[in-house]
């Protein structure tokens, strides 16, 4: 199944830049190691030790902010990171060693190719090891900032989902079981009560089942139901609409049983069906056809509702508050694992679809058994 237009989802927020004061404190702490090493190594002048120690640490101060920014962005991108991290680590170490040696030779007034006493291979290796240690600290800091951003995003989603729970579910009852829909049902029941009382009673029972479903969700505070539960409620809704529309409403099903255990937001399939009926079936004298597909593959679960209604370019078939609410709930419950898309079909018709990718944690998408 292809999705042509996705509802945008917010990525993990970028971490805040490290303040200049923190960089300065880090630089001073790192420079103090070089200063101490020079003093222990026999440098008699504290001022010279301080000058050369600060000069030795300057390459890390210069390259550190750019390196941390690159690490922040690279860790947020998909794909293997080992080769890229290794390459940047090599460049970082090479820059620090070459820049510190260049600065030392220039300030000492010596040619660049001359190796002064005390600047042998052992010193260069020590310098490279210190630069590598600084890079490791920057990488750990970037990883910690990423985890903090992800935790912040998860906390925001959880908070927003909690706020949306009552309003979204009650709004679902108000919009998806709107007064217009209830009035249509009751109007149809008026004639049925005398002509076909058994059919009228059956319709009332199905309407009651839908109302109980919504009230139970609200009472239990459930944000997710199985797709099987959502499908059964949607079938109850379709049975009521068939009573109203008769043979004008035709439905084709493509349901994979393996997908029915997946967990989805309540009132996620039914509003897609209601929107298709309201815009593509009810307005036409000849009615219309719906195709409801529920699928599952290695990536996750998908469900869609497709109609054969208004020609391409017609305003009919566009979603409204129901689509907007569903897209928002999907985002705050699943983040970037969920996609909601709509598509106008050729030469006529409209498709609305939801895709929810598998989580690394099975309990996020499956019911515990």
- What's the total number of strands? 7
Shape: rod-shaped
CATH class of the largest domain: Alpha Beta
Q: Could you give the order of strands across the largest sheet?
A: 2-4-5-7-6
CA(first)-CA(last) distance: 29 Å
Helix content: 55-70%
How would you summarize the topology of this molecule?
Blueprint: H1 20-40, H2 46-75, H3 82-107, H4 121-176, H5 179-195, H6 197-220, E1 225-226, H7 227-245, E2 249-255, E3 263-264, H8 270-281, E4 288-296, E5 300-311, H9 321-334, E6 338-344, E7 348-357
Parallel strand pairs: 2-4
Antiparallel strand pairs: 1-3, 4-5, 5-7, 6-7
Structure, described:
- The chain is of the alpha+beta class.
- The protein folds into 2 domains: 20-152, no CATH class; 177-364, 2-Layer Sandwich (Heat Shock Protein 90), CATH 3.30.565.10.
- Helices cover 59% and strands 13% of the residues.
- The strands form 2 sheets. Strands 2-4-5-7-6 form a 5-stranded mixed β-sheet, with helices on one face.
- β4 (288-296) and β5 (300-311) form a beta hairpin.
- The longest helix is centred in the middle third of the chain and has 56 residues, at 121-176.
- The radius of gyration is 32 Å and the shape is rod-shaped.
- 30% of the residues are buried.
